[in-house]
Design brief:
The chain folds into two domains: 176 residues, Immunoglobulin-like (Sandwich); 129 residues, Helix Hairpins. The chain contains ten helices and 16 strands. The strands form five sheets. Strands 3, 4, 5, 9 and 12 form a five-stranded mixed β-sheet that branches. Strands 6, 7, 8, 10 and 11 form a five-stranded antiparallel β-sheet that branches. A hairpin with a 5-residue loop joins strand 6 and strand 7. Helix 4 crosses helix 6 and helix 4 runs antiparallel to helix 7. Belongs to the inward rectifier-type potassium channel (TC 1.A.2.1) family. KCNJ9 subfamily.
């Protein structure tokens, strides 16, 4: 009794190939009607995996400067390119101003000083920066120095010690900027964040009977031939709740078991796989039927993690399902067939579902019916409603209980009549 599933007998025959039967052609699953208000429902995580949480009134923004590398990597590309260009442009103009100021203070920019420079370039008359006579030429000298272009027309004099020091400083600062910017650009381009774009999640979840147990299922897939290494999937339920003390928890997170103990959450994601959550007494959906699912507001967050085979970096993909994206009484269509010695995956059927018979009753109610009424969940006349089964079983039980009472009374009456006859005789 205790090990018997409340959904026994409602399994339908699985599809053994991707060819749909005539009964299923043109038939859609029991998808709940999505109202305009439901479409506008604010999600905690969007369908493409972006967390819709904005942090505001951050008082200690200096914490981001302590981790400047991560701050640069996390910037959007347009802002990162802006910072990239500003770093180089700022250093070029900064050292160009220093070169121009140094030349101005030494008097190298005066006309008579430039006229004293003969073809022999005497050391005592040679300027600090040869070929630098205005700010534009100083800017070109700064760019040529930091980028090591070296056209040869502009040089620094070895007798100008402050000029040599400025050139050394610019080389060091330029090398630091190169290391930071090139490193950030390399990490940003090679980040596995874009790898998540080739990981597929089904648009909806389905609830159906599998192995005599009610299960919530969704489908995962990978578009690339280079597969994820050590792929793992987990899910969380986000909903609001009020505690016994009256505290309101707007976004309480609870874990949804996807087979952690049995290892079912660790995937070899070569072909699309259907992930299931068994709705048992430990499940948050234990007491929820189709009507309760439509009334409750919650969100299921699915997180897929794995190592990218090409780079060895960790990749994470996320999606979410709200209550209107759960199909009660449906299964996913098979999308894989065996053709010419290899398996073929038809991704056109990745999101497709087909309806299956399923009672409009929660797993908790089904378990209670099974324990109290002691019946098998199989209707030989094709009934799929729990209420019909319970009423028929209750009537049969009443008949069984009333029959022994009638036989006892008839036997007592017969015994009394027999005793009266014996006395009269």
């Amino acid at each position: 009794m205790g090990n018997t599933s409340p959904l026994r007998g409602f399994n339908t025959s699985p599809l053994h190939s991707t060819q749909l039967s005539p009964a299923h052609k043109g038939e859609c699953a029991q998808t709940p009607t999505i109202t305009p208000e439901a479409r506008k429902q604010l999600r905690y995580v969007s369908k493409d995996g972006k967390c819709r949480v904005n942090l505001c009134h951050i008082s200690e923004r200096s914490r981001f400067l302590s981790d400047i590398f991560t701050s640069f990597v996390d910037l959007q590309y347009r802002w990162f390119l802006f910072v990239f260009m500003m770093c180089y442009t700022t250093t070029w103009f900064l050292f160009a101003g220093l070169y121009f100021l140094n030349a101005y203070l030494r008097g190298d920019l005066q006309p008579e000083q430039r006229l004293n420079i003969t073809k022999n370039h005497l050391l005592d008359q040679r300027p600090c920066y040869l070929g630098v006579d205005d700010f534009i030429s100083a800017l070109l000298f700064s760019v040529e120095t930091q980028r090591t272009i070296g056209y040869g027309s502009r040089t620094v004099s070895p007798t100008c010690h402050e000029g040599v020091l400025l050139v050394m400083m610019q080389c060091i600062v330029g090398s630091m900027i190169d290391a930071l910017m090139v490193g950030c650009m390399f990490v940003k381009i090679s980040r596995p964040k874009k790898r998540a774009e080739t990981l597929l999640f089904s648009r909806t979840c389905v609830i159906a009977n599998r192995d005599d147990q009610l299960c919530l299922m969704f489908r995962l897939g990978d578009l690339r031939e280079s597969h994820m290494v050590d792929a793992k999937v987990r899910a969380k339920l986000i909903k609001s709740r009020q505690t016994a003390e009256g505290e309101f928890l707007p976004l309480e997170q609870s874990e949804i078991d996807l087979g952690y103990d049995s290892g079912s959450d660790r995937l070899f994601l070569v072909e699309p796989q259907v992930i299931q959550h068994t709705i048992d007494s430990n499940s948050p959906f234990w007491e929820l039927g189709p009507e309760q699912l439509r009334r409750h507001q919650f969100e299921i967050i699915v997180i897929l993690e794995g190592i990218v085979e090409a780079t060895g970096m960790m990749c994470q993909a996320k999606t979410s399902y709200i209550e209107t994206e759960i199909e009660w009484g449906a299964r996913f269509e098979p999308c894989m067939t065996l053709e010419k010695g290899s398996f073929k995956v038809d991704l056109r059927r990745f999101h497709a579902t087909y309806p299956v018979p399923l009672p409009n009753c929660s797993a908790s109610q089904a378990q209670q019916f099974l324990i109290l009424k002691d019946y098998k969940l199989h209707d030989p006349r094709g009934s799929t409603e729990w209420g019909i089964c319970v009423e028929e079983t209750a009537e049969e039980d009443k008949d069984k209980q009333s029959r022994p009472r009638e036989t006892r009374r008839s036997r007592e009456k017969e015994g009394m009549t027999c005793s009266k006859r014996l006395r009269l005789e």
